[in-house]
Amino acid sequence: MLIDINAYTGHWPFKRLLNNHCEGLLERMKEYGVDLSVITNLNGVFYKNTQSANEELYEEIRSKRAYKDRFLPFAIINPIYAGWKDDFKTCVKDFGMKGIRVFPNYHDYTITDPNLVELVKMARDHDVAVGLTMRIVDSRQRSWMDLATEWGLKDYVPLLREVPDARYMLLNLSTGLALPEEDEATLKNANVLFDTSGRHITHFAKVFNRFGKEKFAFGSHFPVFDYYTGLLRIESLRKEEADEADRALFRQGNAQRFLKL
């Protein structure tokens, strides 16, 4: 079994994306033997009302029976937009979404904003995961209208300290991984799952030995990235770096445990 914990539908206003819908993603999944994908509607990063993107995703998944068993939708919630608490409840209770994703750098609030802290506590209390994204696209190749700065791993640690008992997904590790000792300890002690899509996982064995084998799972960041790179980081591990049991953790075991599948 193979699970992708980081994929999208929807559009990116500064770059043409291909296969950025459920049908296109499902074709990629079949090509690479992926059984289940966690997906988010990328439109919600830019919609003023992120709930419109969540509704689009919910409706698209419902449009075909084949999608329901292959996609695990996550909602994008903006905790400084009016009605966000109702959006959360609708997505979790009515739409059955198993996680949320937040984009504080795009939606213009701080990582310790009281509303975000309240949202993460709500997620914890409803037993849904919280996805935090280090980067969507490389700022060095950004549009002049896109963000000029990126957040690194260290920028998200204060939220983990505010709500230490939530479940966090840290996705696309494409910025520096240098951390003070105290911050690294916070990450190691938290219920965290990293994906394999980010460019800073160039030497995967060093990274999972640093944070723990149980904290990593396959993620593609598709269709922004190509589909195979995140998987190649697992499949290219040498025998002395990881045995078959370790690979099984990265392919599906860690995701199944974390997502309670």
From TrEMBL:
Sequence ranges assigned to domain Amidohydrolase-related in this UniProt record: 49-261
Bilayer-crossing regions: none
Gene3D superfamilies named in the record: Metal-dependent hydrolases (3.20.20.140)
Species assigned in the record: Chitinophaga cymbidii
Entries under InterPro entries matching the protein: Amidohydro-rel, Metal_Hydrolase
A Pfam family hit: Amidohydro_2
Protein name (Swiss-Prot/TrEMBL): Amidohydrolase-related domain-containing protein
A GO molecular function held by the record: hydrolase activity
